[in-house]
Design brief:
This protein is of the alpha/beta class. Helices cover about 30% and strands about 25% of the residues. It is globular, with a radius of gyration of 23 Å.
Length: about 475
Amino acid sequence: MTQTTTPILWTAVSAAAALGVPARGSWSATGVSIDSRDVVQGDLFIALVGPRFDAHDYVTQALNQGAVAAIVSKPVEGADPNCLISVADTNEALWTLGRAARARFDGKVVGITGSVGKTGTKEMVTLALGVFGRVHATLGNLNNHFGVPLTLARLPVEADYAVIEMGMSAPGEITSLSQLARPHVALITTIAPAHLEFFTGVEQIADAKAEILEGLEPGGVAVFNRDNRFYEHLCRVARNKGINRLLGFGQHIAAEARLLDCAVDGEGTAVFALVGDRAFAFRMPVEGRHWAQNALGALAVVDALGLDPEQAARGLLSLSAPEGRGLRHRVSLACGEIQVIDESYNASPVSMVAALETLAQARTGPRGRRIAVVGDMLELGPDGPALHAALAKTVLDRGIDLVHTPGPLASHLWEALPVAKRGANADSADVLVPLLLADLQPGDVVMVKGSKGSKVSRVVEALLALSTQTHGGPRATMDS
């Protein structure tokens, strides 16, 4: 449901009361910002301090751009004192505002985490709940120790639901985020190898993701992937915490939200589902079985909140791919057209397999090829080379025509492939670009994926710069 007016989030009085400091001025804020580059009219700016930055240097700029006030921990020369809230620690102030916003919120909160699929599933839950009321959700992937309190500090009292994504790269991080958000429903999309560099194994990743249960409200519901090998492990953790209502989703016959079948075509994915004792069908304008799988997770959340999953599924008709997670582009060349699938935001072994499987289902033009540009998947620890090489099986099983590999880790995949499947192998995305461009043919479909640090987004930029491209609709594969 669309709000007709922008709600007031904080006033000089309410912000000061939340922070436990004297109130000054008479301003009202309709937004909260921690980045002076993003400040818009009506924002409350929080001058955070970190090891390599101090946002106090930009307070004046933020106020000039339209911020109505700023939270600071040191004097700001030339600023109107009535526009400043002085605190001892601005970073803690952000968390305090988030905590206060959550305390005054009477709606339902959904927390989402997982090794892959977090952001896409967050978008699906948001759309599904949007059928029933006003939803406030994590913007983009603001899912860390800055993003979660910021999302909560921006939470309007008037909203009916809040959907909060929580990420981590090390043990212990999600505990504090969950205790801050205090969800009524906690969804874990899946457990898979990701950030292995910081863990002793995948079971430790499962335990770290299970930290989302630490903040679950009394009587809350946990939703887990019934097909994942850590399902029973997560259920044991939940029961040990006194959580009695557990819902599973997936293809497993015992899943409360069960994927009966799905069909992928050029226009999206058709899904046949069973939620509880109700069977129904729906469509989504994104391509891939993994999207259907996570859609059942979203519908399990709806069911956990006592709402109608079949009605909620209608909201998924407006689903689109998050940026860098599968949006398709058509690029016109002098001799024809190619398609580009932008998966450049991030990557893990599971999401890379999903992207390759979706590429295999893509429709090429006459004499076109299915081409994968596979960049490095980072933070996999000593297993990194083997996990890259293992992708060769998916390439061969799914009939991918050609694989280009920018990066030292991706080169292990290149070496594992037969010569006929090998494209260019380069040290970096920048070196690969001219080699790839020289090899393109009309009708090709090119999927580009890698960890953000691999900079494969530069490959996408080079491809899109070939001509004036048009978006080919909201196509997508699993996000990481």
